User: Fold this.
Amino acid sequence: MKALAEATNGKPDVAIYASSVTGAGRVEMLPFLHEQAVSITAHRFGTPNHLTDELI
Assistant:
């Protein structure tokens, strides 16, 4: 791992994981996944928007 760190010049935007891979995929993916929020807003004049009828 030291050679890899030296090859990347210690850049902080490059992540090097030196630990062994686990058998739990959910645990392995945690550093790579980000929470995402989706919101649906109504038109400011109250005009119904039927694009989201199947989602709600």
User: Anything to note?
Assistant: The helical segments are 2-7, 25-29. The chain has one domain: 1-56. The chain has a mean pLDDT of 80. Residues 2-7 form the longest helix (6 residues).
